[in-house]
Amino acid sequence: MNNTNTNENIxxxxxxxxxxxxxxxxxxxxxxxxxxxxxxxxxxxxxxxQNEFNESDIKxxxxxxxxxxxxxxxxxxxxxxxxxxxxxxxxxxxxxxxxRIVILKCKHVLHYNCAYNWLCKEKVTCPVCRYDQRxxxxxx
Length: 140
Ligand SMILES: [Zn+2]
Ligand SMILES: [Zn+2]
Fold this sequence. Notes:
Elements lengths: L2 H26 L4 H17 L14 H5 L2 E4 L5 H4 L16 E4 L5 E3 H8 L21
Antiparallel strand pairs: 1-2, 2-3
This protein binds zinc ion (2 copies).
């Protein structure tokens, strides 16, 4: 093995180590399976394609289980009045009777399915006020 090769191997090992440390950090913070999936994707991508590892490429989302811990309810005849002037900021539709809604940590409301598509697939922050919706994150 020549010197260049050794250096490459050290780089390679260091990079894997960075991934593992990041994973430990995430697990300590009770992060989410979806985040771990993303990190694993990243690691495999790095190993097989030698792509640059970029922490910002990791998408942080809630899992569908996390979403179940949010207060959620079906709109009823009785409760429709309090939501009639609001619209879901994901689909821009109003809330109708029998539709399931989620009340976020910041008290903003979204349709359950819209909240799923946003929080479990895109971002962990409220689309209205950007409040972090991760259950273990306390925000001032
Ligand atoms: Zn919606
Ligand atoms: Zn909000």
